[in-house]
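Let us work through a complete example step by step.
Step 1: write down the sequence.
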Amino acid sequence: MTTLYDLQAATAQGANKALSDYAGDVMLIVNTASKCGFTPQYAELQKLHEQYADQGLRVLGFPSNQFGEQEPGTDSDVQSFCQINYGVSFPLFAKSDVRDETANPVFRYLTEQAPFRGFDTSEPSGKMLHSFLSEKLPHWLGDDSVKWNFTKFLVNRQGQVVGRYESTVEPLSMASDIEALLADSK
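Step 2: predict the structure and record it as tokens.
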């Protein structure tokens, strides 16, 4: 049976990075985009990185252009944008697809382990995203794949996916969940 640690992902610099390099750490894996309404979440992801990296949190960004072509630039463009606008210092991987047949194997694995449970439609952004997808891409709501940019997956120190947070969930609201995982010994 494949585990997250069996997978690799291409870095923005073109090398392959084994996810087993993060064994023993808590990972927050996020698909990102530079021209999305949720792009300001980069600031909160960076805050989480700064606050918890020394305790073992690894924020890993995976840029994707699959949602409204909101990540049109090169890997170098993405790196520059994130550094200049949000001071991002956590790893950003190479652009890749995160849904459908061409999905990065990391995201195929994550969505198998943490199925889509819907949006919180009591929140305005959750209601808006659900309505948009219902109207424009209704078939997307019927599977477990990533629905939009900034879907976040939380992975414990043993490499198990323990949480999925949809695009509308602000990263800082996940702090208590992250702290609980960090408190678990290796």
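Step 3: interpret the result. The chain has five helices and six strands.
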